[in-house]
Amino acid sequence: MAITILPPVVEDLGPYQNASDSDEDMSDNSDSDVEMGGVSLQKKRSHFDSTKLGAKFVTPGEVVHDDPQWMRGHGTYTTPLSTSIIATVAGNVVQTNKLLSVQPLRARYTPEIGDLVVGRIVEVQSRRWKVDIAAPLLAQLPLSAINLPGGILRRRTSADELQIRTFFNEGDLVIAEVQSVHQDGSASLHTRSLKYGKLRNGVFLAVTGTGGGGARSNLSKGGVDSSLAVPGSASGTGGVVRSRRQVWTLSTAHGGGEVDVVLGVNGYIHISKHADGEAAASSTTENVSINRMEELVSSSIYSSQNDEIHPQTRREIARLTQSIQVLVQSGVRVDEDTVTGAYNASLQVDLEVGDDEDEDEGREYLEGMKARRIIELVVKGN
Amino acid sequence: MSSQRQASSAAQIPHLSPAELSYLYTSLSLPNSPIRPDGRSPTQFRPLSAETNILPGTNGSARIGFADGTQAIVGVKAEVEKTVLVSDTLDVQHEAQGTGNGEGGEGSSSAVTGGHGSWVQMSIEIPGFRDDDALPVFLSEMMRESLVGSVGVKDKSGEENMAGGLKGRLVINKRWHWRLYIDVLLLSQPLSYPLPLLSLTTHLALLSTKLPKLKSKGEEDPFFDDDWAVAEYIYPRVLGVSNTLQVRPPVTLLVISVGENVIFDPTREEIAVADAVLAISVTRDNEAGSLQPLKLLSIRTIDPPSRLTQPGIPNSENVNMLGAPAPNENVAVLNPATGEEEVPGVWRPRRGGVKRSVIAGMVKTVLKKGGVGEEVLAGLEGVEVS
């Protein structure tokens, strides 16, 4: 069947609860998630009860509380005329001692110094690039903050300014690090490392990143372990969280070889074939001087030509892409463990499904039942 | 900022880097088994959710949501209007004389059976576009054209089955007719080319459209039954009879070709690398004895955005790679689909043009028995019309 037409779903419950309430063998945690979802919905209309702050969902302009004993936190404001705290974003109320803040359901990425981000060049100016990193404002990448080809260290001249487009052009994907954050929240990036530069040999996908001032990072295990998560926010939107390793190499099944995964903290992800050149360079670091190594690697930094990539590798990259999409749609956080888990789960699901579904069409499309099963496996694994 | 926002809403296609475009193109053009970024098979559609009769104030309505989050609502409103016999309409009448008439019988050749295309009005609203922008105007005309162009013919039993198609169905008598307003509303930003979504939703809305039952006879002023329960579907639904003999509104499918491969329901990224983008309108062929279940109504080519993309630079020409190890892989290879020389792994914007066999393959995949077109129509008929 080429087309699947489904009846509309009631969108009261988050997608994660949808997945869990149809499976009896889920853990107890997820069952309590479902109940909590119900409670928070009822709470929305009922009168505010200060003992159940966490379960309250507010929309912008709604009064969170009017008792002067509370202090206002992120996502709220007060007017000088009254003592009431009013929400500025749609989300769940979070209480920290006497501080009331609203954790937004969806937010753009807030840059912080040291974040590894994936960005797309949207504008080339005379001495800098403007980069889209899913933040409220475009980030800037000055010409002085990139490595010159060959690793030469010198002042940037007007000749460099003239050929600025040969380094990065509009549309190019770059992996960079946040160097500084300005007063208005916009970021300055740099690519002064051998790890950074132009991305190629793979696919790009955008998911939710760390928004709302990293508030989501306290949503440990992405709404799975509800004892740690803030009540009511168990249906967290998932996405990429700051973690120890944002870039790693995964060895894939079915002869796909090694695949590099870059999880930008801003929610932009790049999955590509593992670059052999870099591996060779790093393995021979012992007998190569620093400068020579820089030369070796940086020769490919500004290339826009793809290497030869085998169909098996492409297939596994597509599978990995979908595994991440499944995670995001189910509100599970995306990091090294969950991505690897989801990838392995998708392989296992394929083995399970493979027998009773004889039609070969769209076998690799992960949705519906398959997605549910993958999430189940990932959640169990953690 | 405002100019930037406008540019991004008008630009259907995201900025993609040459490396990404090249990767996508090569994956999609792998002979016989393209690898789509989301793992679908070439003819597989993304799952969509559909419901009908969602607006109480309309004669028929539908909502469809695609898996990528785009959503459209269509409402159909019908109005009785006095037929003004201009010369144009008369011409249509004369042409229609040959096909006979559906209302009066007795072979009165002067009966209006032809109807007029302007009795169907379609307006499309897409966020970020003015209603006189090129895209909404082009889309609505393309969909209206296939809608009024589809003509019903006599079925096996010799009974008239919507002679003149939708146009003929709108005729009440010689002096009165229905006027149909089809309002299409795209609720989300157009993430990909919105044509398939809008077309499927319009199809579903028309399937659920009902007109009040006519009580008056012949050339009297029209007078309708108040009871909505006895209202008749504009596209009659006969239960138990094989669906293939019924007249159905057309659907327009978006098909792209990448290399020699034909791909359905393309995502935005897939459209960005397409060699050719076609909008193919089909409907059920209810002519007795025809071999194919579907009839081709129209094919439109859509400007493939791939020609506007940035070209990639081969390593051999990259000034930043002068010190690099000798580039031995930069041997230009002939692309069999376009007949141009290309360095593998380097993106070259498409210059347009596609082989005749590829176009034929695209049409065949839609039309053939058990093909994609039939499955889509069957799927849409399966949606419960309440």
Automatic annotation (TrEMBL), chain A:
Residues 13-39 are annotated as: Disordered. It is found in: Nucleus. Residues 112-192 form the S1 motif domain. GO terms for molecular function: RNA binding. GO terms for cellular component: cytoplasmic exosome (RNase complex); nuclear exosome (RNase complex); ribosome. Residues 21-34 have a biased composition (Acidic residues). InterPro entries: Exosome_cplx_N_dom, Exosome_RNA_bind1/RRP40/RRP4, KH_dom_type_1_sf, NA-bd_OB-fold, S1_domain, S1_RRP4. Keywords: Exosome, Nucleus, Ribonucleoprotein, Ribosomal protein, RNA-binding, rRNA processing. GO terms for biological process: CUT catabolic process; exonucleolytic trimming to generate mature 3'-end of 5.8S rRNA from tricistronic rRNA transcript (SSU-rRNA, 5.8S rRNA, LSU-rRNA); nuclear mRNA surveillance; nuclear polyadenylation-dependent rRNA catabolic process; poly(A)-dependent snoRNA 3'-end processing; TRAMP-dependent tRNA surveillance pathway; U4 snRNA 3'-end processing. Coiled coil: none annotated. It comes from the Eukaryota. The keyword Nucleus applies. It holds the Pfam family S1_RRP4. Belongs to the RRP4 family. This is Ribosomal protein L27. It comes from Penicillium angulare.
UniProtKB/TrEMBL annotation, chain B:
It is found in: Cytoplasm; Nucleus, Nucleolus. Coiled coil: none annotated. Residues 41-60 have a biased composition (Polar residues). One of its GO terms (biological process) is rRNA catabolic process. InterPro entries: Exosome_comp_Rrp42_subfam, PNPase/RNase_PH_dom_sf, Ribosomal_Su5_D2-typ_SF. GO terms for cellular component: cytoplasmic exosome (RNase complex); nuclear exosome (RNase complex); nucleolus. Keywords: Cytoplasm, Exosome. Residues 32-60, 95-114 are annotated as: Disordered. Gene3D superfamilies: GHMP Kinase, N-terminal domain. GO terms for molecular function: mRNA 3'-UTR AU-rich region binding. PANTHER family: EXOSOME COMPLEX COMPONENT RRP42, EXOSOME COMPLEX EXONUCLEASE RIBOSOMAL RNA PROCESSING PROTEIN. Belongs to the RNase PH family. This is Ribosomal RNA-processing protein 42. It comes from Penicillium angulare.
